[in-house]
Amino acid sequence: MTATMIENTLAERGIVVDKEGFLQQPEQWTPALGEELAASVGITMGPRHWEVVNYMRNTFLESGSAPTIRTLGAKSGVPVKELYTLFPKGPAKLAAKIGGIPKPKGCI
Amino acid sequence: MSAPLRRPDGATTAFVILGAGTAGTIMANRLATRYAEQLQAGLVHITVVDQDGSHIYQPGLLFVPFGVYTPEEIVKPREAQLPRHVDGVKYLQATIEQVDVAANKVLLEDGVTLPYDILIVATGTRIVPEETEGMTGPGWREKVFDFYSLEGATALHDALEKFERGHLVVNVIDMPIKCPVAPLEFAFLADWYFTQKGRRDDVQITYVTPLDGAFTKPVAAEQLSHLLTEKRIELVPEFAVGQVDGTEGKLVSWDEREVPFDLLVTIPLHRGAEYVARSDGLGDDLDFVKVDARTLQAKAAPNIFALGDATDAPTSKAGSVAHFEAELLMENIDRALRGEPVEPTFDGHANCFIETGHNKALLIDFNYDTEPLPGSFPFRFGPMKLLEESRLNHLGKLAFRWVYWNMLLPGHDLPGISPQFVSHAHRDDTVGANH
User: Residue B31: which of B329, B245, B357, B425 has the closest Cα?
Assistant: First the structure.
């Protein structure tokens, strides 16, 4: 399924995403949706992926901001090098997308 | 609320404020004004602690490398900004060892103990360049610089004066950082600086960020992306630095990409104050104080509040935020002392000038829920423009140094500027949730 097709089915199910496909309401997320979102960016979820995504999501829900690469590397149980193997190019951004939380952003 | 904060009639109330930077100084002045009578009657005591005696006007650090301000022009004594000649207000210069949350007291390194009824944490953030591999190794302050410290900004001034050609790289290692727009402003000012020197064609400027763009919010990205092209600043997004190689002159990312540099201006990793890590339950992994983002009450205890850069609240670490928070926190402290519940009044409001060089600046205004939008400020008619370059915004930024020392720190409200976000957008239909 292509990214556009997934976005269309998300819209049909009433799941709100921004232009880049990030969920806007974290409570609409389910693990099954996480698998779908991962597939849309070419990732097949394994246990190590889930460690990162779960840590990312739980931290966001607790504190209101998503952890950065530095914290992920120190606290998620997955070292930074491996983060890049699991989530090529942008681990923090991809883990946020798959975990159903907003994109990591600056202030502008 | 688990602990009663109201003092029995006649008992004294001890406030301890940790940190006498922007946030701590404003709070000290607001408390002294609000409780002037009680201070005089000996019913209230305020103790302010800071580890050093110099209050730096931090927005000025951006200008020091370019010779716009000298270091002396942005530093004043801390104590002189605090309530003066007021009985019951004391300033201590000391290193903080720990907050004993369970015992309601602060321990200082010199052995002094400060019991408190209300603790206000305002110890800000610090840079930790040593946490990035190689950053403080060969080349540190020779061709690798920060400008988030007075020493760094001063050393960078000398380096820029000598720099005539080559690759200048401006880099953010990771978020969160203080004044998140400052690195971009640095790149803009560098374009202007080398243009003035007649050297712009000999200097390549690259902006390297771990985020996926220089502008990451939709409206700002749409309105401002042209600035990078106009100023010939190359962008390298999604680059998370794993190592700085000062000998070879290159940044190496975790996924093994490289960016070469002749001069690196980097924003090192940030952390909260060291003692936070030694204070049970007070801070998060980066030593920022865990707070309720809307009441500013610490999660560790109901009689601890935090504001400014020291908190984990998901807003910008900026002076304007400290100012807005202080105004609202004063009311929450007052409520707590009256035995009333604190209220979720802080909405993440931030307001920042963004210097774009060539005597122009942008102004942005936003909060937790609304991204920076175009419009006029203050009120809907201006005179300053939001999200648009203008000379008046630049003059506003320069004038702000006076406002900082004379209005903001003493704890005066700024006319026309509400601590809570008010939409200034030209068109109501542009106002929406933060995407």
Answer: B329
Shared fold status for B13-124+273-337 and B129-269 = yes
Say which amino acid occupies B383: P
**Do residues B320 and B327 make contact, with C-beta atoms less than 8 angstroms apart?**
no
Residue among B314, B434, B435 whose CB faces A64 most closely: B314
Q: What is the pLDDT of residues B154-178, one digit of tens each?
A: 999 999 999 999 999 999 999 999 9
What is the third-level CATH fold of A1-101?
A: Arc Repressor Mutant, subunit A (1.10.10)
Nearest to A63 among B180, B240, B284 (CB): B284
Helix, strand, coil abundance in chain B, percent, nearest 5? 30, 25, 45
Terminal CA-to-CA distance of chain A, rounded, Å? 33
Fold (topology level) of B129-269: FAD/NAD(P)-binding domain (3.50.50)
CATH class of B13-124+273-337: alpha beta
Burial group, residue B285, by CB count within 10 angstroms (0-12, 13-18, 19+): middle
DSSP class of residue B7 equals P
CA–CA separation, B283 vs B269, rounded Å?
Answer: 17
Please tell me the pTM assigned to this model: 0.92
Quick check: A108 and B216 CB within 8 A? yes
**What tokens appear for B242 in the block?**
């794993």
Residues of A tagged active-site: 107
Asked if B375 has any chain A CB less than 8 Å from its own CB, the reply is no
ipTM score here? Answer: 0.83
Chain B contact present for A75, CB below 8 A: yes
Distance from CA of A94 to the nearest CA of B (A): 11
Tens of pLDDT, residues B76-121: 999 999 998 888 999 999 999 999 999 999 999 999 999 999 999 9
**Domain extent listing, chain B:** 13-124+273-337, 129-269, 350-430
Give the DSSP H or E segment for B77.
strand B75-77
Please list the residues that pair with B251 across neighbouring strands: B244, B259
Is the CB of A70 less than 8 angstroms away from the CB of B366?
Answer: no
- Please give the Cα distance from B94 to B86 (Å, whole number): 21
Which residues in B274-406 belong to E strands, given as ranges? 304-306, 350-357, 360-366, 375-377, 384-386
